[in-house]
Write a structure and sequence with these properties.
The complex is a heterodimer. Chain A is an alpha/beta fold. Chain A has 31 helices and 26 strands. Chain A folds into 3 domains: 234 residues, Rossmann fold (3-Layer(aba) Sandwich); 119 residues, P-loop containing nucleotide triphosphate hydrolases (Rossmann fold, 3-Layer(aba) Sandwich), CATH 3.40.50; 301 residues, ABC transporter involved in vitamin B12 uptake, BtuC (Orthogonal Bundle). Chain B is mostly helical. Chain B starts with a helix and ends with a helix. The chains are: A alpha/beta, B mainly alpha. Chain A: GO terms for molecular function: ATP binding; ATP hydrolysis activity; transmembrane transporter activity.
């Protein structure tokens, strides 16, 4: 099926990051109907190259054409032209279901109707495999990495791309899924489209690719027909004929004392590891990612718990926490620098001294003179490029950040140094310096353990190398056998595809983490509380009492919908209470008895406009001035309250009696406002789960980056959320007319906290992505019920607050615990 | 940036650079703002800068400053303590209650503080151990505390013990005791966070808890201690307020929640954790109180006062973002 038509052409593409040259004049093309393998080590630039192709990254130089059309840093256009990419880290929204993720992942034209979504999604998953274990209704958080990857692949295939980019696709897949993947890849090429297959597993690429291109350190090493090269030739192209990097001399042979020894050491992800590391030596741990080497190191650092026999300088030890590891003289250089290495906003000085602050103290206080002196010395010694020590560490380049962290870790004067990916995201120049520093530390008597996915690095630095596979040490290399070729060969030989793995999970926790659990629990609590109170005091269930409660619950519920709407996109609005007061005040000038029809109409219009304006201002402060939502809405809280008080310094302006009567109308014993609240909840719930807007909002709140990839525009969606929230507050204020009757600027204030409490009890997450309007309704009913039940139970008044407080804590603790439990690593 | 980064290594930062980084940071704006405000007052409302007016304003500023100090450290840990009203109110009531039951103010102070400490620890454990969002946790504990307020007071205010009232009104060399106490809080906490190892670790835990764990810092301890110390601050503020107005009301703390958060924001402590300044929050408390006095003296009512405070918050935050708009890295 191959033809000479080029579906993807990249000409002279270079990409520079601050301080790093990731790609240098790469020329790469993909023919229609071919599988084009892209191979190279970690950090060779494969993912960066595909990032440029997909428009996620802007090339510094060079051109990209997809199906003949030139594209530059425009992911939407790239997707439209038919480029789909399956990333190593799937771009999925964790709080959305599998089906919803598939839905949002497709271009608008290909999306099905949301009503039959789960069936549609099940069908797509069945295309992948008949015995697929993924339920389309499951949240992404409950899937394991392999299942997530399958969802990502299914999504990409369904787009029927012209160019499908697969980035390390077999990393997460079990054997039978790899076969399925190969089948799909062949189907894609059979219809004349092409596949770019990125992998560092050479055999796999040989098996599937027609041509292959090799990258090394950001430079192209040529494109070859896959069948013309044997495995050794490919390896030498990947590694480079001669060593491009210089490593310091290794440890001198001779006797070295064993510092740290493990025996039958097991923990999450590794088992029965027995290793020794000696003073002055570097022990490298190699293997495909996630085969236990990193987990083993983190257990030694005290971050995970391990069990087994450990000795340090001959003494038995136990490591229970990172603090414990530190006290024993084990220090750790984290692999994920951004997450665990640096304190981004703090200065270089603070980042440097934090791990060894005791060195700076004089008479119990940190001496800034000593601290600055030490920092200057570290900056000089490690050649950190910075104007001075007070610069925030986040403004440095990756290599310089890493040098600061390394200097800080070494300043702890450790006996054992654990080094995880010391040169990830570090430019070539800084790498050599980091290697030198690590080797010097070893030479000074420190026992060093190194984990790196860069085999050249492991070979160049280590005196001994342990090869990990599936959590066990399968081979040890020592002395002259520590070469990159040997390590690569051992790693490739030892690691076949992975087994399927599943985390077993109690049915209760899985249920409790679902969308419906909060509704059922709060519903049951309402029924239970109602039954107890009714049994105790029959008046509680009298029509009058029920009507009253429903009236109050309706107002709280509607304002809670607003809060919920905004909280879906991780916002929060403190100003809803005063907004309700302001609407009340505005109404008290227009909606009076005997007011002319024109005034009435103007009044109704103003009520909504005023509410919308408050929402718009909130959005402006958050998006435009980048204020934290709390701060922004705290300011509008005060400002809106000020306007209300300005308009009505004291309550006044009797509202139209007819209007109040209308609002007080009941159907049987049920107030119309309550009916309206219930209908609104159902409509909004429908929008939330069955309309594109609702799914998009949840997606945005769940993970902004993934949502952006799916074509959701965060700024616009947040505008809808802020304005919508305030309009709901305005609607709630209308239902309050009948209860308050006059323009009282303080009437709504208590609803701010009430609305937050209601949505939180209803199962919303303050971090966005999760929530339910029915949950908010139930939460509002529950709060109203708690507020009134104490009177009927003849409990003293303080019980109202005790109950509320304890119930909030209990419900939220349960939700938080269950959601934590179901998250798969 | 471009020029200086070219240098391979660096020597001692120049004196000018040091001055620049310590004097012109986001926490220094508030000093200039406060001085400007007092100068403005002396023109538009000379009445409020007379010694008598200032000495009647200071105790309120001092009490607000103490609450703002507690709020600052919680915000430095990426949290927010909504239990301030409950804590402040219950502290005033407990103090009066214990004072009258035991007849000893000397006993009432440590007992009240011990209870506050316990409540703060519970807050901290709920946040750090059970992983409940701080705002929700403290909203709930606030509700429980307000319930306790009702139970303790039985629904009516209590007279403050005479000794407390005396203390709250006392002056040392003409300086109100409340102000001295506030400054003590600010200075001690500021020195602890900037100049001691636990303080440094506290900042690190707030800035990046995961990195703090990897660096061998027991983060739970610091997170819990933060809420405990914040509770202590609120309790002290509650007792002082009770003494100052002469009775322990059931709503003493309610009007302090938003102003305390506002003072922290105006002082410049950001909401993303780690960095913060209790000194700036304290000065901002003075700024906000004096601003209120000025607006009041100009004949404006509560409405204008609120509006001015809202503007102060927005301007205070926006001003610190201005450099970003001009593309400074």
């Amino acid at each position: 099926m191959q033809s000479e038509k080029l579906l993807l052409e990249m000409q002279g593409v270079s990409k520079h990051f601050p301080g790093v040259r990731a790609l240098h004049e790469i020329t790469f093309d993909v023919r229609a109907g071919e599988v084009h393998g892209l191979v190279g080590e970690n950090g060779a630039g494969k993912s960066t190259l595909m990032g440029v192709a997909s428009g996620a990254l802007q090339a510094t130089e060079g051109t990209v054409r997809i199906d003949g059309t030139e594209v530059s840093a425009d992911p939407d256009l790239a997707r439209e032209l038919g480029l789909a990419i399956v990333r190593q880290e799937p771009a999925l929204m964790p709080d959305l279901s599998v089906a919803e993720n598939l839905y949002l992942g497709l271009p608008h034209a290909r999306r099905p109707s949301l009503s039959g979504l789960n069936d549609w999604a099940r069908k797509l998953l069945l295309h992948w495999s008949d015995d697929v274990s993924i339920d389309p209704r499951d949240h992404i958080t409950t899937l394991n990495p392999e299942q997530r990857f399958i969802v990502e692949i299914v999504k990409a295939l369904e787009c029927e791309p012209k160019v499908l980019v697969l980035d390390e696709p077999t990393e997460h897949l079990a054997t039978e899924d790899v076969k399925r993947l190969f089948d799909r890849v062949r189907k894609v090429t059979a219809r004349g489209a092409s596949v770019v297959y990125i992998s560092h597993r050479i055999r796999e690429v040989q098996a599937i690719a027609d041509r292959l291109t090799v990258l090394r350190d950001g430079e192209g090493q040529g494109t070859y027909p896959a069948r013309e090269l044997n495995e050794d030739q490919i390896v030498s192209l990947i590694v480079g004929g001669d060593l491009d990097r210089t490593f310091p001399d290794k440890a001198t042979p001779g006797h070295h004392e064993t510092v740290l020894a493990t025996q039958e050491f097991s923990g999450p992800g590794f088992s029965n590891v027995s290793l020794q590391v000696r003073a002055g030596e570097i022990l490298g741990l190699a293997g495909i990612d996630a085969n236990g080497q990193r987990e083993f190191m983190r257990a030694l650092a005290g971050i995970h718990r391990g069990h087994g026999h450990l000795t340090l300088s001959g003494k038995d030890i136990q490591i229970r926490s990172s603090q414990g590891a530190k006290a024993l003289g084990i220090s750790y250089l984290p692999g994920d620098r951004h997450r665990e290495g640096i304190f981004p906003e703090l200065s270089i000085r603070e980042n440097f001294s934090i791990r060894s602050a005791h060195e700076d103290t004089r008479l119990g206080l940190v001496s800034s003179r000593v601290e600055q002196g030490r920092t200057r010395e570290a900056i000089r010694q490690f050649a950190v490029k910075t104007p001075n020590g007070e610069t925030p560490i986040q403004s440095l380049s990756g290599g310089n950040q890493q040098k600061v962290v390394l200097s800080s870790v070494l300043a702890m004067k450790p006996k054992v140094l654990l080094v995880d990916e010391p040169t990830q995201g570090v430019d070539v120049g800084a790498r050599a310096e980091i290697y030198r520093v690590i080797r010097e530390a070893a030479r000074a008597g420190v026992a060093v353990i190194l984990v790196s996915s860069d085999q050249q690095e492991v070979a160049g630095l280590s005196d001994h190398v342990a090869i990990f596979s599936r959590g066990r040490v399968v081979e040890m290399l020592t002395g002259d056998r520590v070469t990159e070729d040997n390590i690569t060969a051992s790693v490739l030989k030892s690691t076949e595809q992975r087994d399927k793995h599943h985390k077993s999970l109690g049915a209760f926790w899985k249920w409790a983490a679902g969308n419906s659990a909060p509704l059922i629990m709060v519903g049951l609590a309402i029924a239970l509380l109602g039954a107890v109170a009714g049994a105790w005091n029959p008046y509680y269930l009298s029509p009058r009492s029920l009507s009253n409660m429903m009236t109050l619950a309706a107002t709280l519920a509607i304002v809670a919908y607003g809060q919920q709407f905004l909280m879906l996109v991780s916002g929060i609005d403190l100003s809803v209470g005063p907004t309700m007061g302001l609407v009340q005040v505005v109404a008290s000038f227009f909606l009076l008895s005997g007011a002319a029809g024109g005034d009435q109409a103007l009044g109704w219009m103003l009520v909504l406009v005023v509410a919308a304006v408050v929402g718009f201002v909130n959005w402006l402060l958050v998006e435009g001035l980048r204020l934290h939502p709390m701060v922004a809405t705290l300011a509008t809280f005060m400002a809106v309250q000020a306007v209300s008080l300005f308009l009505r310094p004291v309550p006044g302006g009797m509202l139209d009696g007819q209007l109040m009567n209308a609002l007080n109308t009941k159907v049987g014993i049920v107030p119309v406002t309550f009916i309206a609240a219930v209908v609104l909840a159902l409509v909004m719930e429908y929008v939330l789960f069955r309309r594109s807007l609702g799914v998009s909002m949840r997606g945005l709140g769940s993970r902004q980056e993934a949502a952006r990839t799916a074509g959701i525009r965060p700024v616009m969606v947040r505008l809808i959320a802020y304005v919508g929230c305030s309009i709901f507050a305005g609607l709630a204020a209308i239902t309050m007319f009948a209860q308050v009757g006059i323009g009282d600027p303080r009437a709504g204030i208590s609803y701010t906290l009430g609305s937050i409490a209601a949505v939180v009890i209803g199962g919303a997450s303050l971090f966005g992505g999760r929530g339910s309007f029915i949950g908010a309704l139930l939460g509002a009913i529950f709060i109203t019920q708690v507020n009134s039940v104490t009177v009927f139970l003849r409990l003293s008044q303080e019980w109202q607050q005790y109950l509320l407080g304890f119930l909030i804590l209990a419900s939220v603790a349960l939700y938080s615990k269950s959601r934590e439990k179901v998250v798969q690593a | 940036m471009t020029l200086t980064t070219e240098r391979k290594t660096m020597t001692q930062p120049s004196f000018g650079q040091q001055i620049k980084s310590t004097v012109f940071n986001e926490f220094s704006w508030i000093w200039g703002g406060t001085i400007a405000l007092f100068i403005l007052c002396s023109f538009v409302a000379p009445g409020v800068v007379r010694p008598a007016a200032i000495s009647s304003m200071l105790p309120f500023a001092a009490i607000l400053a103490i609450t703002a100090v507690g709020m600052t450290i919680v915000i430095q840990q990426r949290g927010l303590d909504m239990s301030l009203p409950g804590m402040m109110t219950i502290a005033g009531l407990l103090f009066a209650q214990i004072g009258f039951t035991t007849g000893s103010t000397l006993l009432a102070v440590p007992l009240t503080l011990a209870i506050a400490l316990g409540i703060g620890i519970v807050n901290g454990l709920l946040v750090a151990k059970l992983n409940i969002t701080p705002i929700v946790t403290t909203l709930a504990t606030n509700a429980i505390l307000m319930g306790a307020v009702r139970a303790v007071s039985g629904g009516s205010p209590m007279t403050a013990p005479a000794e407390l009232a005396e203390f709250s009104h006392a002056k040392l060399f003409g300086v109100p005791m409340t102000l001295i106490l506030a400054m003590l809080f600010i200075i001690v906490i500021s020195i602890v966070t900037k100049r001691t190892i636990p303080g440094r670790r506290f900042v690190a835990v707030g800035a990046n808890p995961a990195a703090a764990t990897a660096a061998g810092i027991p983060i739970l301890r610091y997170q819990v201690a933060t809420y405990a110390i914040a509770s202590l601050c609120f309790a002290v503020a509650g007792m002082l307020f009770t003494g100052f107005i002469g009775s322990a009301s059931q709503t003493a703390g309610v009007d302090y929640l938003l102003p305390a958060i506002a003072a922290v924001v105006v002082g410049g402590t950001p909401f993303n954790g780690g960095r913060g300044s209790v000194i700036a929050s304290g000065v901002a408390a003075l700024f906000m109180t004096q601003l209120g006095q000025m607006v009041l003296a100009l004949g404006a009512g509560t409405s204008v006062q609120l509006l001015v405070q809202a503007l102060a918050i927005i301007i205070a935050v926006a001003v610190r973002h201005i450099p970003e708009y001009f593309g400074r890295p």
